[in-house]
Write the structure tokens for this entry.
Amino acid sequence: MTHDEAMRFAEHWVAAWNSHDIDAVLTHYSDDFEMTTPMVQRVLGIESGTLKGKTAVGNYWRAALKKVPDLQFSIIEVTSGVGSVSIYYNAIMGKRAVETFFFNKNGQVYNALATYN
């Protein structure tokens, strides 16, 4: 993935989140997408911190937006790797996050891992 492609992805991803358009966020993901984040542990009590499937993740995100209606992300830095992009950003509750997205051969995110300070 080139840096320009990574930047385009990151900018669209953040814009979709900031407009609270979960359907637009989900356009980047495969149906069998898997996400791991400590927020899933904290909010849903799932020990692994992992949600599987675009529908399950979308439902989780919609519920989360209801709890945080003023959610706004801002990009600090974007890096790119082999079939992957990492976004370092200002997240929620005064936290900063790094989220790494892994892309399949169709250009869709099939796995993501989020970490927070």
Notes: The beta strands are 29-36, 50-52, 74-81, 84-90, 96-103, 109-116.
